Amino acid sequence: MDSESHAAHASSEHAVTGHRAAVIIASNSAAARRSADTTGPRLVAWLRGLGLRCGEPQVVADGAPVGAALAALLAEPEARRPRVIVTSGGTGVTSADLTPEQTAPLLDRTLPGIAHALWEAGTRNTATAVLSRGLAGVAGRTFIVNLPGSEGGVRDGMAVLEPLLPHLLAQLDDIRDHAPRAQQHARAQAQEHAGVGPHAGAGPHTGGKGHGAHSTAPADGSSAPRAWAAVPATEDSAVVEAAVGAAPLDADAAAAAVVTPAMGAVAQFRGLIRHHDAGREDVVGLDYTAHPDAQAVMARVVAEVAERHPGVRVYCRHRIGELAVGEDAIVVAVAAAHRGAAFACCAQVVDEVKARVPIWKQQHYAAGGHDWVGLQ
After folding, report:
1. CA–CA separation, 289 and 182 (whole Å)
2. What is the secondary structure of 255-315 as a DSSP string?
3. CB atoms within 10 A of CB 131
4. Which of 37, 39, 80, 290 has the fewest other C-beta atoms within 10 Å?
């Protein structure tokens, strides 16, 4: 890679860090304090986790107050203006749902592809997601996106936006790094195996899956699949392991890793490769691919879920590479003093990892051909 391309790629990777973001919640009931705002704190925590500077959510009534809040943020001096503004609520078809109408006049350019990706992600969970009229676009150098007001809609939105934001903000800064994600992934792999590149020799990162955190080669110098470096853990750690790698998974070892004398229950989930999907029953295997930032995202997601359940210990590991029918793709184990906490935390870890961690799978069929699943 020449120095100019390398600089552009590095700038793209760090385009999010340090910039300001803002969250606007459109809700008549929350603005009147008749109900609690649950999506705002979640969006703020997510944006901060990405490295953005984000204040507390601004809760306003539906309609014109949303437009006023957006206009006020965009009127700030450019050096202080948010680079990312996320709204939640007011995207439906009731008479009060006017967030898109308040947003549209402020946009210089729309980004319909992002809106379509949000619809596609939402319809995996509920058919009514297509009723959302949310917009995405840019005003100057600020990216604005309207998400639904539901927790599920916000969760789907975060999963779609997270891998896009660095490249989007880099483009708004006129950094022209257009290498496709697959080329970037292949390039990162080649650099890692050659022992060169910005991450070569790096130790474990507390982050999501992919090439953001690297594993160590087997001591015998063999070419066996290498596991990603685990999150360092002690007996008091909430997250025992949160990692992605090519090595086979061991469900028994996962359960054993979270147990301490204080734990009275262990809940476990194993995600297996099945032979059918989307109406076809000739699936013979899958090939999982992870975004370079996936390890960082994985660790952040698991830590966030663990924080919501005090006293738990969590193990989560997802495989990448070629898997056959019957093999484990993901193993999650959660230990807690009582079964209710263990079950609840385990279910949330599985849901959040599936929704937010950028891993895609290519399904291969006995009759030939393949399909990509989960690729945004």
Report:
1. 9
2. HHHH--TT--EEEEEEEE--S-BTTB--EEEEEEEE-TTHHHHHHHHHHHHHHTSTT-EEE
3. 14
4. 80
Triad 244, 190, 201: Cα angle to 5° = 65
pTM more than 0.85: no
Evaluate whether 92 touches 126 at the Cβ level (below 8 Å): no
Contact 159, 355 (CB under 8 A): yes
| Euclidean distance between CA atoms 66 and 87, whole angstroms | 9
DSSP string of 25-70, one letter each residue: EE-HHHHTTSS---HHHHHHHHHHHTT-EE-PPEEE-SSHHHHHHH
Amino acid at 213: A
Do the Cβ atoms of 162 and 297 come closer than 8 Å? yes
What's the token pair of residue 209? 């899956």
Could you read off the pLDDT of 332-376 as tens digits, one per residue?
Answer: 999 999 999 999 999 999 999 988 998 888 888 887 776 666 543
Cα-only R_g, the chain: 21
Q: Are 254 and 332 in contact (CB under 8 A)?
A: yes
Q: Which two tokens stand for residue 361?
A: 């799978």
Q: Give the pair of three-digit tokens for residue 203.
A: 């130790």
**Residues of the chain above pLDDT 70, percent:** 77
Biggest alpha carbon–alpha carbon distance for the chain? 67
Please report the pLDDT score of residue 6 as a whole number: 39
Q: What is the dihedral of CA 308, 309, 312, 318, to 10 degrees?
A: -50
Contacts of 27 (CB under 8 A, 6+ apart): 35, 37, 59, 61, 62, 89, 90, 149
273, 323 contact by CB (below 8 A): yes
